[in-house]
Design brief:
The protein is an alpha+beta fold. The protein has two helices and four strands, in the order βαββαβ. 26% of the residues lie in helices and 39% in strands. A four-stranded antiparallel sheet has the order 2-3-1-4. Strand 2 and strand 3 form a beta hairpin. The chain starts with a strand and ends with a strand.
Length: 77
């Protein structure tokens, strides 16, 4: 399994709604609204890097209110 943190910037006032919608997507382990330069942080997993990419592009980025995402794959060094 491949896991990643997805850092999300949203439109003003949309963070909690975005986190709630994303938390229900398959492959999403956790979605929380936070403070700082990003508004929502998501932990997600998929079987492969390609599947993770499809989750981000086809599912996460389609959620209304998102303005920008940054995907950070988890590595085990």
């Amino acid at each position: 399994m491949v896991q990643a943190y997805i850092l999300i910037q949203t439109e003003v006032g949309k963070a909690s709604t975005v986190a709630e919608v994303i938390s229900k997507l398959p492959g999403v382990l956790q979605a929380e609204d936070v403070t700082g330069p990003y508004d929502v942080i998501v932990r997600a997993e998929a079987g492969t890097v390609d599947e993770l990419g499809r989750l981000v592009v086809a599912e996460v980025q389609r959620v209304s209110g998102i303005t920008r995402t940054l995907t950070c794959p988890v590595v085990h060094l």
